[in-house]
Design brief:
The structure holds 3 protein chains of 3 kinds. Chain A folds into 2 domains: about 15-45; about 50-185, Immunoglobulin-like (Sandwich), CATH 2.60.40.420. In chain A, about 20% of the residues lie in helices and about 35% in strands. Chain A has 2 helices and 12 strands. The longest helix of chain A is centred in the first third of the chain and has 27 residues, at about 20-45. Chain A is elongated, with a radius of gyration of 24 Å. In chain A, about 50% of the residues are buried. Chain B has helices at about 5-10, 25-55, 65-95, 105-130, 145-175, 185-215, 225-260, 265-280, 295-300, 305-330, 340, 350-370, 385-415, 420-450, 470-505; strands at about 10-15, 20-25. Chain B has a two-stranded antiparallel sheet with strand order 1-2. In chain B, helix 12 (about 350-370) runs antiparallel to helix 13 (about 385-415). Chain B contains 15 helices and 2 strands. Helix content of chain B is about 70%, strand content about 0%. Chain C contains 2 helices and 1 strand. The chains are: A alpha+beta, B mainly alpha, C mainly alpha.
């Protein structure tokens, strides 16, 4: 028996002790479980980061967001537009130093395709309190099919450093029960 | 033997403890790299005090600019400079010293060290003077002063040269037959670390050079998503250097403290080999909720190819303690299941540091990391405080603590001094480990409540809306504050002990210089 | 003022015989040196891992559907 600081000779074909061999088999089996869980959750689970992903020009994305805002605007809060889009629609959120635009008014139990991007630097989309997190990268449109499960007053924290105003960056998503009165009367 | 080699053979001493023949150039470079590691640690721990007293929301010591500035200083000083200077010392030990051999091309070795030192100083100056408030990851479009990137490039090039010299020393030792059989397991682990270091540093060159040329105004900005991909090829792989080096140090400390045996060379070496093959794929786990990549890519890479590198860690997680157990049983501690552990030298700071490193790295670091490195679970973890909770358990309470433990043996064996403040030295690993447990676990829980990382103020004073975190968060951040203060104090203690011992310490009784 | 000491391993380590004999045949079991204590400890580790891992899947299942 020798320690790890000694130069051993002819050791490569020695059989390992039983305990070690058993442990390696157990550990390997666990690794296979770990690996299988991910594809499994794609089939059976409800939370995956797949999304519909595209490259996008940041200015074009900002323009698209403002267009979305104008189309479904229902009000304003703390200087940020409030928007009530129809269920099932493509909705847009823009991260911009140091704001999340717009405030979204959504309906519980209904799906939307939420587009995320930035017009300047990296931001981090963190939905409070469910603690859902996605990276918001300028030049990339991350469209995620979301279904708010409960009504509530949700906040959007930025959790990727984006400059000195990073800790002032806070957005809002209001989820209401039942049909939301969307702009244009579309239910 | 030609005359050059004969002349060099005169510059060796024989270690009275291990019987190894220690080359003087290797010894000088081990000492210098260790000293610079400590200097970097000083910068890092000053920043640590500021950061922990700010994220402890009730104290909130710094103002925003200095919080983000010191966050950059802390990350770069600890994760790049401290740990890599220390690892250079480990390479000089695991190569030339463990193999009774010499450093090939000593002038080049010295040049590489100077390049690393110059690069480090350049970067520190940029950070402390506010020209690099971009955090350790420096994601474009955020931009720092060009000298920030250039300093890192210098440092990386110097490190790459040292890694190359390490490989060269292996070849020289083999050719000059300064050892027989295979290299020792500790050296094999260092080789794994060195190979991963090459992969790491090549990624670093690939990303920092075009970022530097952009900062100089010569080229276009790297695409932000591509930057994140390549940067994490550097950023994560560098952590795997730290894992391989830490495991090598565990085997080393096991040998030195209790005569721990290698259960089976084949399995331990295969585990290191699995690290080399697959570990760089894991960089993908930083990109699991990024828009630039599909699920197939994310699943394959985050699993390190079906978790084979996690298997490697789980193997070492068994063989290292098992080697300690068998070493102890060979020394007579055979009663029952755990006499070998109960009667182990817990008062030896090299031993206690090693054990705490193993436990904290495994239970807190490893488990949390593999869990939220899962493609979907990452959704509830990315950029929350769970992330620094995890990596302080792996690289700080794991690697850095193991390095602290080995320092207590380096001081008498390499610097040939007795360890100063011995009663404090004996408890230092416990203070550090204990503080780190409080720190990491509280951050992990706070992150589960959604608390963001890299964030100056979760009270969101001045924001357009209100937000109220769970009441438990205040308590958790308080515990984080206390644990962090204890751990940072233990770091200061470690620095004090190491510096005092080296410069003002009592020489070892047999300060041997024989062996010519 | 600065009490000095040396870790116990410095004096206890037997001089290492380099390249110990060709072809090691002994392994831990033959001398009744099986690492049983470690086997239990890694068992505890594995249980902790399994529990933590599946608790996190459960936590994930509570949040909004997203994909």
């Amino acid at each position: 028996m020798h320690t790890g600081i000694v130069s051993p000779k002819g050791v490569w074909w020695v059989k390992a002790p039983k305990a070690e061999r058993i442990w390696v088999m157990i550990a390997f089996a666990w690794c296979m479980v770990l690996f299988a869980m991910m594809p499994l959750w794609h089939y059976r689970g409800g939370q995956n980061p797949s999304g519909i992903r595209h490259k996008v020009d940041p200015e074009a994305y900002e323009a698209r967001t403002l267009e979305f805002v104008e189309q479904y605007r229902v009000g304003e809060e703390s200087g940020i537009a409030v928007v009530a889009p129809p269920p099932g629609s493509d909705i847009y959120m823009l991260g911009k130093m140091w704001q999340w635009i717009p405030v979204l008014k959504l309906q519980a139990g209904v799906s939307y395709t939420l587009h995320l991007s930035s017009s300047d630097v990296n931001h981090g989309f963190n939905l409070f309190p469910p603690n859902i997190n996605f990276q918001v990268v300028p030049g990339y449109d991350y469209a995620l099919r979301i279904t708010p499960n409960e009504p509530g007053d949700y906040k959007v924290v930025c959790n990727e450093f984006c400059g000195i105003g990073h800790h002032l960056m806070l957005g809002r998503i209001i989820v209401e029960e039942g049909p939301v009165v969307a702009a244009g009367g579309i239910q | 033997m030609n005359t050059t080699v004969a002349a060099l053979a005169a510059r060796f001493r024989t270690c009275p403890t291990t019987g190894l023949r220690v080359n003087s150039t290797a010894e000088h470079l081990i000492r210098l790299n260790a000293v610079f590691a400590i200097l970097a640690m000083v910068a890092g721990v000053i920043a640590a005090f500021g950061l922990v007293l700010t994220r402890w929301q009730a104290v909130h010591l710094l103002e925003a600019v200095w919080y983000y500035r010191l966050l950059t200083v802390h990350g770069v000083s600890m994760l790049i400079f401290f740990i890599i200077f220390f690892e250079m010392a480990v390479l000089y030990f695991a190569g030339p010293v463990l193999l009774n051999s010499r450093v090939p091309m000593p002038k080049l070795a010295w040049a590489a060290f100077i390049l690393m030192a110059v690069g480090a100083v350049m970067v520190e100056v940029q950070m402390w003077t506010g020209k690099a408030d971009v955090l350790f990851t420096s994601y474009p479009p955020l931009r720092a002063h060009p000298n920030y990137y250039l300093g890192i490039i210098f440092f990386a090039v110097g490190a790459l040269v040292v890694v190359g010299l390490f490989f060269a020393s292996l070849v020289v030792a083999k050719r000059e037959e300064t050892y027989g059989g295979s290299v020792p397991l500790v050296t094999y682990g260092a080789i794994a670390a060195a190979v991963i270091a090459v992969i790491t540093l090549l990624h670093g060159a690939a990303i920092y050079v075009p970022t530097w040329t952009w900062a100089m105004g010569w080229t276009a900005m790297p695409d932000p998503q591509v930057y994140r991909l390549i940067w994490w090829g550097l950023g994560h792989s560098s952590q795997q250097i730290n894992v391989a080096a830490m495991v090598a140090v565990w085997y080393l400390l096991g040998a030195l403290t209790v005569g721990a045996v290698v259960l089976n060379e084949k399995i331990s070496r295969a585990a290191f080999f699995l690290y080399v093959l697959f570990i760089s794929m894991a960089s993908a786990h930083h990109l699991l909720v990024d828009p630039g990549f599909g699920s197939g890519w994310k699943i394959w890479n985050t699993s390190y190819a079906m978790y084979l590198a996690v298997l490697a860690s789980m193997i070492h997680g068994f063989t290292v303690p098992a080697g300690i157990e068998v070493g102890q049983r060979l020394r007579g501690f055979t009663k029952g299941m755990f006499e070998w552990l109960r009667k182990a030298p817990w008062g030896d700071p090299g031993f206690s540091a090693m054990i705490l490193s193993i436990i904290i790295f495994g239970f807190i670091g490893g488990i949390t990391g593999v869990t939220f490195g899962t493609e979907q679970i990452n959704i509830i973890a990315h950029n929350t405080l769970r992330v620094p909770g995890h990596f302080h358990a792996t690289v700080v309470a794991g690697t850095a603590l193991a390095f602290m433990g080995v320092t207590y043996y380096v001081i008498p064996l390499v610097f040939q001094k007795q360890v100063a403040f011995w009663p404090l030295a004996r408890i230092q690993p416990y203070l550090f480990g204990g503080g780190m447990v409080l720190f990491t676990m509280s951050m992990t829980f706070a992150g589960t409540f959604g608390v963001p990382r890299r964030h100056y103020d979760i009270s969101f004073t001045g924001a357009p809306f209100d937000i109220q975190y769970n009441a438990a968060v205040d308590l958790l951040l308080g515990i984080m504050g206390i644990g962090g203060l204890i751990a940072a104090t233990a770091v200061v203690l470690y620095i004090l002990i190491a510096v005092w011992s080296v410069f003002f310490g009592k020489p070892m009784p047999q300060a041997a210089t024989a062996g010519e | 003022m600065a009490f000095y000491g040396v870790p116990q391993g410095v004096s206890k380590l037997p001089r290492q015989e380099h390249a110990p004999g060709g072809g090691e045949k002994e392994h831990a079991e033959h001398k009744g040196l099986a690492p049983r204590g470690t086997f239990i400890l890694v068992g505890v580790f594995l249980v902790a891992f399994i529990v933590y891992y599946f608790v996190n899947w459960k936590l994930l299942s509570f949040v909004w559907q997203v994909g």
